Amino acid sequence: MPEDFAPGPAPTRFGSNSGQPMTRRDGVAKVTGAAAFAADARPEGLLHAVVATSTVARGRVGVLDVAAALAHPGVLDVMTPTNRPALAADPDDKPHRFSFRFEALQDDRVRYAGQPIALVTAETPEAAAEGARLLAPRYEAEAPRLGFEGGVAYAPETVGIGSPPQFSRGDVEAGLATAARRIEAHYETPAQYHNAMEPHAVVAQWDGDRLILDLPHQAPVLGRAMFAAFFGAPPENVLIRTPFIGGGFGSKALVTGAHVLAVLAARKLGRPVKLALRRDQMFGPVGHRGATRQTLRLGIDAQGRLTALEHRSDGMTSSFDEFVEPAANASKNLYAAPAIAVSHGGVRADIGTPMAMRAPGEASGSAALECAVDEAALAAGLDPLAFRLLNYAETDPASGLPFSSKALRACYADGAGRFGWAGRPLEPRRMRDAQGRLLGWGIGTAQFPATMFAAQARATIRADGGAALEIAGVDMGQGAWTALAQIAADGVGLDAGRIELRSGSSDLPDGGIAGGSGHTATAGSALHAAGGDALAKLFEIAAADPASPLFGADNAGFVARDGRLRRRDDDSRSESYGEILARAGLSEVVGSGAASRPPSVAEACAMFAHGAVFAEVAVDPDLCQIRVTRMVGAFAAGRIVNPLLARSQLEGGMIWGLSFALHEEAEHDRVSGRVINADLAGYHVPSHADIPALDVLLVDEADAQVNPLGVKGVGELGITGAAGAIANAIWHATGVRARRFPIRIEALMG
Amino acid sequence: MTDMFPQQIDVALSVNGEAVEARVPAGRHLIDFLRLDLGLTGAHAGCEHGVCGACTVRVDGRSVRGCLMLAAQAHGAEVWTVEGLSETGEIADLQEAFVARNALQCGFCTPGMLVAAQELVASAPAPTREQIRERLSGNYCRCTGYEAIIDAVEAVAQARAGGAAR
């Protein structure tokens, strides 16, 4: 196969790497099966571990038949709370806000179904699985507290990760009192599970006091520190290798009990240990999107302008830790209501702790908000797009600050044009397709914060004129290894083909977390800065060298292009990186860079990516079967580093939105507390046949404030807006407002 | 009871054109045999009950779920995985189209998707987009790149049909 695939006609390059639709650098490895995922590691002497998980949701583990498990041929070790080696840190401690409690056999308590209760290690995976089965646990079970009715309501101090649970601006009650019309609606969203294609796996090896982990991890340097803490090791003695992740979506940013136990088993038995969760074991200990119940109250004046917007969300969390879906925050920054109040409540139940799942808060909150806004538009007698334009926020409704950029009007216009929105009847049940199905059109606005974390990077320009860029970045499918290489190449003034990007390993400079749609902006900024630092050092050498064409150019400055430094005021005077280093007798020059958002920027403007999603559904008038027949999304997310990859991210997000609207729901058995559809047959993720024609439009948006690269992020934006657009289209087709997600046939049956 | 059944079974089969003989645990699934015993990393275990398609390989000419078939059942069979199909060049055009259109993201589903897509394109010369959706619905992509996958498979099917017509 050729090394590089050309996607159609070669694009005009203008000397830049960023902005070009380059194909993935890991593409060939992934289509040939060579890309190494954690579970592919097969070190010499590998043992296999299977974690036994609880089948009750609350109580204690009474009896485990350890003798039977140990008697099974090939079984080497059974770890239970009675013999589990000590850990250097308590899994129930929360030393920082990214710490979440987990179960590593610290006691015999069961706090949710699916919790680890023992670890069996054996010579083969078959023997380990049989050993785990032979444990035949018996429990002292207690009645589980489940659901909003059975759980314990409380007032959380924070929602999401460290966000305040309440916000208000203006007088909502006064706004509602003076409104010409008021809308109040209740929405329910279910528990959803990330279900990345790759099950959570680890291969753990000890080399003396060094620990090597092949482990999919969305924040390898943070993860290294956490593992180091549990094993009492200095961080530099722990190595996490995570070159490729088979999907993460927020569920692979944690330390989990099963992984810690596998590491303990490897140390105890003196051999490498592999553990991969079964699919059903991913419904509990590795996080999920918590269920919500939301209430929105909107007031509008006689013209349809919002006078007040109130959004309340109650979210499920576990009995022992906290992650409350920050759903109501979706209403803070989108529509121009003079009075806004958002608040959150929590409900504790005997379930695994929820966690960030692709667009945490934004997805659930947007689904409810966009439906409520549609109801308000109807009450105002306005087209839903016209209503959104009437209530367009020119400045951030929450802070009053200007937006760093906001091309949402263009998104509405481009998306509506492509979709053919004009002429949509206001009333429902007015359109049919050729098969007699009811057709409906709906719209939802997409919005996601332009997040930045902190990252560091290193750039090494070599005597051969190429460069190595290093950062502990993470490619979990979004294309970071490609997009970051494009930015890094620009940063060192080289073609992307001339640089080597080392990433995906915890011994590299900290790239932060791949999450919050902030990885490209954060890690990319650090790489770009590192390249600039290396170039500055190179220029300093050249400017001081009488033999260089750049001698004495200190004040003129330089530009770097195609592997050459050029005088900024006279680009005919230039020298290649290799020539500069050779004459200086250097093999390389090393630069470092760091990135984070200065507080002054966050205080000066509000930073969000936006979009408009349009959906068409067809509903069988007799059977009420719902099909999404087409979707158009138009998105503005600052500078698009790679339109080929960005389009895939946005399409993926829209499909997650469709899945939110129509498919995904984990159902708990009311007696046992188990997720009864804990597999990919019962837990519906969309297949090819569920997905219609999708159209993604990338709307130009320049943003000089969000970060020097002008990048906002596209990983989660596509989900927001999409679920609401589909729910609104279902109303337009049928006249039925379905306010419980996922929307199923029974919601439409009279 | 268990004594009536052998714990280990000797198998002889062809994998990617090479003869393989091995003694395997009786309960070992084909996917685990390919990955653990042979070190083939293309096919992946995703759901372990035949739904997600990440473990799809070709056995005696047909797409098979590696997680639903025991290694012992493959005795005497001809097995092809994405590695072998890459070496022979049989799916080079599909691979090229997948990369060119970014029809893969995390890539965990991709090898199985390619095996299934090759079976489809080889058996149905000019599938419609609806037929491609239907036939590939046993292969999940959670990321999810469905639109680009359909584009890639459709383009290859058309190119092959065009080439055959010439």
TrEMBL record, chain A:
Entry's Gene Ontology molecular function annotations: iron ion binding; oxidoreductase activity
SMART domains named in the record: Ald_Xan_dh_C (SM01008)
UniProt-listed Pfam families: Ald_Xan_dh_C, MoCoBD_1, MoCoBD_2
Domain of life: Bacteria
Annotated spans, Disordered: 1-24
Domain Aldehyde oxidase/xanthine dehydrogenase a/b hammerhead: 32-143
Protein name: Xanthine dehydrogenase YagR molybdenum-binding subunit
Automatic annotation (TrEMBL), chain B:
MF-aspect GO terms: 2 iron, 2 sulfur cluster binding; metal ion binding; oxidoreductase activity
Name of the protein: Carbon-monoxide dehydrogenase small subunit
CDD domains noted in UniProt: fer2
Keyword Iron-sulfur: yes
Species per Swiss-Prot/TrEMBL record: Rubrimonas cliftonensis
Any Pfam family hit: Fer2
Residues annotated as domain 2Fe-2S ferredoxin-type: 9-85
Keywords from the UniProt entry: 2Fe-2S, Iron, Iron-sulfur, Metal-binding, Oxidoreductase
Range of residues in the leader sequence: none
